């Protein structure tokens, strides 16, 4: 924070102005005649001029180098953003291509379905007799299947309730 403030443009301008004023006091003799109060400081002004000039050059050089570093960082960020944009664009193109292929397959399937419906009709084929009962028996528990196969004449809820009542007695 403090180094950023020291290398800011207003600070560099102030250091430059200080270097110019101290240079004028140290090297121009007519300043002594215009402002006699600065005569005792003429020798110190030469040293202050060197220090202020060195500080100005250092701050300006650091600012330029920092600007170059920021430019390199921005270039890197821009290259990364362009890379991700390119990847996103390619992904979108691939997704569009896959969607078109899926739409084509769906339209082919719809065409085959309409051909089938025109050839065989829209009504599904009815299952053969006994298939539904056989499917339901497969879904029952193994114990119930064993009971059903032992007593084929007892089916339904009423028959099961009678069988449970007979077992309890």
Automatic annotation (TrEMBL):
It comes from the Bacteria. The chain crosses the membrane at residues 12-31, 43-65. Keywords: Membrane, Transmembrane, Transmembrane helix. This is Uncharacterized protein. Residues 94-120 have a biased composition (Basic and acidic residues). The lineage of its organism: Bacteria, Pseudomonadati, Pseudomonadota, Alphaproteobacteria, Hyphomicrobiales. It comes from Bradyrhizobium quebecense. Residues 94-131, 137-156 are annotated as: Disordered.
